[in-house]
């Protein structure tokens, strides 16, 4: 992908991604409508198709999808600096908001009411994470080998306390080997 | 020194969590086990709740929060910068040299296995969230567990409802029932 320099300034990149970061809840897919409005409709930095490609790349490279997407659009406009500045724009609202919230909450840690509210919030988090697991499971466990890998990962992390990093590496190698074997068998 | 260590730990999280959002969760639990003086498993559940109910990417919100608990406001900044640095480096390299990275057959093969491992890691993280919330000293907390099944049923039925709503509902029920039991 080539750098497509025009009159886009680093400030424009910073401010656009600041807005996207500050106005979308959850990142990832939830960010797409806001991205479309800013980078396609308003500034025409990329086309609809390019945005979907960039988004797809963001999903399969290490790191947070929202950051990868910002970083790549920034790179296309202003090279390495564009990438850095877009990323900083994206994280600024989180930094400010979370730092404020975290300081307020740690200050009132002893409050009984806050503890009760968080008692209920934790239960809601349990429900939300279960909902995510169900959705992701349907998309990720597609056959017998993937089921086995998933079970081995769960057992290895819960019972043997092995590092998640190990399973990320194992997962990649597993995918390469199993898909290769499947193809050979088909031939 | 703490800041250098914080940057290093979150750099690793940014480098190995592929797919964003919840995928950083197992790494945070791993870190809490390794460095219990930084933050605890219980802290992580609260972090997740706050990150889901505030604007911004969940992974970034959690990194800022975790860094804050470890070393104050500057800690939050360093953890966040650590987590995004691998992204910026890798994306610049890919943008420069690899067009259509996502359509590469090797990348697709790798993802077939990676996705299965990542769901396993998220189940591991979920087990930690469950153990601090629904269990206490080896026994089940009845009220919380009942509430969990009710909320889960609702969340599965009304999928379009924003997570924030469930979290606010959870907070209201927590106050009403005086949780944790």
Write up this protein:
Chain A contains seven helices and one strand; from the N terminus they run αβαααααα. Chain A is an all-alpha fold and 187 residues long. Chain A has two domains: 10-107, no CATH class; 112-186, no CATH class. In chain A, helix 1 packs across helix 4 (65-107). Chain A is flat, with a radius of gyration of 21 Å. By secondary structure, chain B is mainly alpha-helical. Chain B has two domains: 2-114, no CATH class; 134-181, no CATH class. Chain B has seven helices and three strands. Chain B has helices at 2-16, 25-34, 41-52, 58-97, 105-133, 142-157, 163-177; strands at 56-57, 135-136, 139-140. In chain B, strands 2-3 form a two-stranded antiparallel ribbon. In chain B, strand 2 (135-136) and strand 3 (139-140) form a beta hairpin. In chain B, helix 1 packs across helix 4 and helix 3 (41-52) packs across helix 5 (105-133). The longest helix of chain B is centred in the middle third of the chain and has 40 residues, at 58-97. The N and C termini of chain B lie far apart (40 Å). The mean pLDDT of chain B is 92. Chains A and B meet through helix 1, strand 1, helix 3, helix 4 and helix 5 of A and helix 1, helix 2, helix 3, strand 1 and helix 4 of B. Strand 1 of chain A pairs parallel with strand 1 of chain B.
